[in-house]
């Protein structure tokens, strides 16, 4: 049940990130909403769950943003792998570690995407343009972790209550 709820929420987030946020956001930067959701989901449900979600969500995001197919999927796979660090016994501290991981992923993931675009020959902005926006975009993504974390916890609680 939690997976179904997460599927609905992440599809809405993909559409919001691809179509809605660029139009209504007054800031020059957009948060990585889907990336943050992947980090939080993986931190709470494991790397296997994150990897399963990375491919279909990445393809949907690629199609809606008209990116080269697979670029966003690889970025989300990277987010799922790093998000798994929050599951380790040493790192369990609630929401703090997912916030830091979201910050790290929000910095590194765009660099991976830009590198892939350049390797594939896309005429996308280079590293200089990406680096200029990285810090504010990463901080904005980090601020999104608490509400996303709360949403995932509510989905889990609802799924647990539905079983009983």
Word description of this protein:
With 164 residues, the protein is mainly alpha-helical. It is built from 6 helices and no strands. Helix 1 runs antiparallel to helix 6 and helix 2 (33-45) crosses helix 6. The radius of gyration is 15 Å and the shape is globular.
Gist?
The chain contains six helices and no strands. The protein has 164 residues and is mainly alpha-helical.
SSE diagram, text form:
Elements: H1 2-24, H2 33-45, H3 47-65, H4 71-83, H5 96-120, H6 127-163
Helix pairs in contact: 1-3, 1-6, 2-3, 2-4, 2-5, 2-6, 3-4, 4-5, 5-6
Question: Which terms would index this structure?
Answer:
Arp2/3 complex 21 kDa subunit ARPC3, 164 residues, globular
Mean pLDDT: 83
CATH topology: Arp2/3 complex 21 kDa subunit ARPC3
User: What is the strand tally?
Assistant: 0
Distance between the termini: 12 Å
Estimate nothing, just give the exact number of structural domains: 1
Cα radius of gyration in angstroms? 15 Å
Shape: globular
Main beta sheet strand tally, sense and closure: none
Low-confidence blocks of residues: none
In terms of DSSP E residues, the strand content is under 5%
Quaternary arrangement of the chains shown?
single chain
Question: What's the CATH class, please?
Answer: Mainly Alpha
Supply the number of helical segments: 6
Structural class: mainly alpha
N-to-C series of helices and strands: HHHHHH
């Amino acid at each position: 049940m939690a997976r179904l709820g997460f599927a609905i929420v992440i599809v809405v987030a993909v559409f919001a990130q691809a179509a809605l946020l660029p139009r209504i956001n007054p800031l020059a930067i957009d948060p990585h909403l889907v990336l943050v959701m992947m980090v939080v989901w993986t931190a709470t449900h494991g790397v296997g769950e994150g990897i399963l979600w990375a491919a279909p969500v990445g393809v949907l995001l690629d199609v809606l943003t008209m990116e080269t197919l697979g670029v966003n999927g690889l970025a989300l796979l990277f987010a799922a792998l790093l998000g798994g660090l929050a599951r380790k016994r040493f790192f369990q501290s609630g929401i703090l570690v997912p916030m830091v991981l979201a910050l790290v992923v929000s910095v590194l993931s765009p660099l991976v995407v830009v590198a892939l675009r350049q390797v594939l020959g896309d005429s996308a902005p280079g590293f200089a343009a990406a680096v200029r926006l990285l810090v504010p975009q990463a901080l904005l993504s980090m601020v999104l972790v608490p509400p996303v974390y709360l949403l995932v916890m509510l989905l889990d609680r609802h799924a647990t209550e539905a079983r009983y």
